[in-house]
Amino acid sequence: MNIIVKLEETALFILGIYLFRFLSFEWWWFFVLILAPDLSMLGYILGNKSGAFFYNVFHHKGFAVLCYILGSYFISEDLQLAGIILFSHSAMDRIFGYGLKYEKGFRYTHLGEIGK
Fold first, then answer.
1. Confidence label for 108 from pLDDT (cuts 50, 70 and 90)
2. What is the dihedral of CA 97, 62, 13, 101, to 10 degrees?
3. CA–CA distance from 41 to each of 37, 46, 78, 109 (Å)?
4. pLDDT for the residue 70
5. Residues 43, 56: contact at Cβ < 8 Å?
């Protein structure tokens, strides 16, 4: 993967950490929850199509930003936290080359095939 994309995603991950500092949660919450979006992989139990759908919903930055904006509008730190975690996790995944999934299978992402 292109080094520029990795640098961009690293900057976005740092932005997530920066935004987290404005919430009243203890820092250990960030480290405990950062891998929580990967629970969406359980959708693959129902097949590739369902797995890709659930994985992509919880790894889409647009959904993460929407959660954060709604949390800011409704003054809900829990919703802001969800948005920050989803956003940061998605950036972290893309740093390591894991992108949004195609229905073809878990290995096939918008960033290329995993494991090649």
1. confident
2. -20
3. 8, 10, 22, 14
4. 98
5. no
Which residue's structure tokens are 């960030």? 30
- Amino acid identity of residue 2, one-letter, is N
What is the arithmetic mean of pLDDT over 58-67? 97
| Cα 24 to Cα 20: distance, rounded to the nearest angstrom | 9
In whole angstroms, how far apart are CA 3 and each of 10, 11, 78? 10, 12, 34
Q: In the prediction, which pLDDT does 116 show?
A: 67
